[in-house]
């Protein structure tokens, strides 16, 4: 039962990440190609938009961690914001490295960077820190 729930949570988190990520990537392309912003600035803006989508889906569907206590959501938002700042920084820096050092188009460099950041940084922090469910919450959700 535990494994099945963990796999389901992981898969649902990937759906949330995909929806936030596709929005993030699309807005980045729009801002860079149409509005001619440098891709590092586009990543900052698009990452924020994608993060709002990702947070909402994670909170209400993936982890179902929806306590109505304002201090609880404020804590989740603060933690999530820190993860997003780290994520955006890693994505901007990684994309820049791929583009400058390896002459890889920023769109491809961004996709490569996203794979590492999503699985190695975002998912573990979101699951085990932002939306961590303690034993008391787990008992309530099981009922």
Automatic annotation (TrEMBL):
This is GtrA family protein. GO terms for biological process: polysaccharide biosynthetic process. It holds the Pfam family GtrA_DPMS_TM. The chain crosses the membrane at residues 7-31, 37-57, 77-98. It is a multi-pass membrane protein. One of its GO terms (cellular component) is membrane. Keywords: Membrane, Transmembrane, Transmembrane helix. It comes from Flavobacterium hydrophilum. Residues 18-131 form the GtrA/DPMS transmembrane domain.
